[in-house]
């Protein structure tokens, strides 16, 4: 099929690359000149394993094209995906990009098309968007909602092998067309109305953090009662009704999605007159987990971190991404700096992003280099390369052999045997 993707952000680029790989002719519209230039040279503006290669392959094959022009892209497109950002503005969803993109689509529509909203938008908004678009076109179109459920760092895997494809439509004929487009993609199908599809996205992005905050609350109790949170959550997750995923206790969730979608849902609930108290507690618990961790660091450093040099391993909000939005590292570093600590920080790919927002930190690509003469090692993002460090070497480098593990990745017995003071979370 001939497709257009509006917006070369995270979701847009992945969607475009995947549909091109599956044999469709795909245009991507991006209005940012710099981004467009880079994309045309095969450069992608963020780190995502495998995506650059897939884009280059399909661009060279002529299956994937980038343009600034809505007119050029959508002229022959049967399906147009709106993949622009919906950032948070004081807790509210900022829909300005959705409205400007759909206006441009309407103004350039020459033939009937299906317009699919992939951006995360408030449930029920499609009727408003439809009215808005009709102000700019007489050409008939259908609106649908197909939310995305991909994770950063695993975007291709999640898009090519998703758990489910949710198709939110008001007409059977549109469902048929979208089911056809997704035919080569496995996973369960759910066809529902567009408001339900949009709610599924918010509900999923609220439920997963609920599991995480629950696990984190249990981790604090585990610390107090001598239980191991990993074993506890493993046991809990063995119950099929609960499931094993998203029960990893640690420093809490970050990223560009969960925090943003939780505040949007809280805002929408408030507007609708509903007090979503569970979700408020999820948010609060997540914030408190960082304070809990920092208190641990201070305690293990002998009651004060003033003028102590500490190494923070990991800056991105999770491994395999350069994204530092709402990363726990930002909060941990800020709190430790407020308490007078001097921070050295390492990350395999996120240093240049972090340099834009973190001040007075020394950055190191090589963790061993950073560890020379420091007071403690603090694991904040569980990158694979930090899981397999040489602790015999580290013992000789650190001034005080203290390891505080935000994700329970290290083996306590082994570290203690080597002479380290070690603490994880709920361990
Ligand atoms: C999340 C969802 O998982 C995707 O399904 C969704 O499409 C995406 O948001 C989105 O709305 O765009 P993402 O933010 O990329 O994906 O990352 P996740 O892997 O879900 O992790 C989110 C945060 O939760 C990370 O900070 C991670 O460290 C934390 N987490 C995850 C835990 O603290 N414990 C866990 O057990 C799992």
TrEMBL record:
Pathway membership, UniProt: Nucleotide-sugar biosynthesis; UDP-alpha-D-glucuronate biosynthesis; UDP-alpha-D-glucuronate from UDP-alpha-D-glucose: step 1/1
Active site residues according to the UniProt entry: 257
Positions contributing to NAD(+) binding: 35, 86, 120, 152, 260, 325
Reactions performed catalytically: UDP-alpha-D-glucose + 2 NAD(+) + H2O = UDP-alpha-D-glucuronate + 2 NADH + 3 H(+)
Residues making up the signal peptide according to the UniProt record: none
Sites where the protein binds substrate: 149-152, 201, 246-250, 254, 318
PANTHER family (alphabetical): UDP-GLUCOSE 6-DEHYDROGENASE TUAD (PTHR43750)
The family this protein is said to belong to: Belongs to the UDP-glucose/GDP-mannose dehydrogenase family.
The protein's name in its UniProt record: UDP-glucose 6-dehydrogenase
Organism classification: Bacteria, Candidatus Shapironibacteriota
């Amino acid at each position: 099929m001939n497709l257009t993707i509006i917006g070369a952000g995270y979701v847009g680029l992945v969607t475009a690359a995947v549909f091109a790989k599956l044999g469709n002719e795909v245009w991507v519209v991006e209005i940012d000149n710099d981004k467009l230039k880079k994309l045309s040279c095969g450069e992608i503006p963020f780190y995502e394993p495998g995506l650059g290669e897939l884009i280059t392959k399909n661009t060279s094959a002529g299956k994937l094209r980038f343009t600034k022009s809505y007119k050029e892209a959508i002229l022959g497109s049967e399906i147009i995906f709106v993949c622009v950002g919906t950032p948070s503005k004081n807790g509210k969803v900022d829909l300005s990009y959705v409205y400007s993109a759909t206006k441009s689509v309407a103004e350039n529509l020459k033939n009937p098309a299906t317009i699919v909203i992939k951006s995360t938008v408030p449930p029920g908004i499609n009727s408003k968007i439809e009215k808005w678009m009709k102000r700019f076109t007489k050409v008939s179109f259908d609106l649908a909602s197909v939310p995305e459920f991909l994770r950063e760092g695993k975007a291709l895997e999640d898009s090519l092998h998703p758990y489910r494809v949710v198709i939110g439509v008001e007409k059977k004929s549109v469902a048929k067309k979208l089911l056809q487009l997704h035919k080569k993609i496995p996973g369960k199908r759910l066809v529902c109305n567009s408001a339900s599809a949009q709610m599924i996205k918010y509900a999923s992005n609220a439920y997963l953090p609920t599991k995480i905050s629950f696990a984190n609350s249990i981790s604090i109790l585990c610390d107090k009662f001598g239980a191991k949170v990993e074993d506890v959550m493993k046991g809990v997750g063995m119950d099929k009704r609960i499931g094993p995923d998203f029960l990893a206790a640690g420093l809490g969730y970050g990223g560009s999605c969960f925090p943003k979608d939780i505040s949007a849902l809280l805002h929408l609930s408030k507007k609708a007159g509903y007090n979503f108290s569970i979700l408020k507690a999820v948010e609060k618990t997540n914030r408190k987990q960082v304070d809990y961790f920092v208190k641990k660091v201070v305690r293990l450093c002998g009651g004060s971190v003033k003028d102590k040099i500490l190494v923070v391993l990991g800056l991105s909000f999770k491994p395999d991404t350069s994204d530092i939005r709402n990363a726990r590292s930002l909060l941990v570093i800020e709190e430790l700096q407020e308490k007078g600590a001097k921070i050295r920080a390492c990350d395999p790919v996120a240093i240049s992003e972090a340099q834009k927002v973190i001040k007075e930190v020394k950055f190191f690509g090589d963790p061993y280099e950073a560890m020379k003469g420091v007071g403690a090692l603090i694991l904040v993002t569980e990158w694979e390369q930090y899981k397999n460090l040489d602790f015999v070497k580290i013992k000789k480098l650190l001034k005080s052999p203290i390891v505080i593990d935000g994700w329970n990745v290290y083996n306590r017995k082994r570290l203690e045997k080597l002479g380290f003071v070690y603490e994880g979370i709920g361990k």
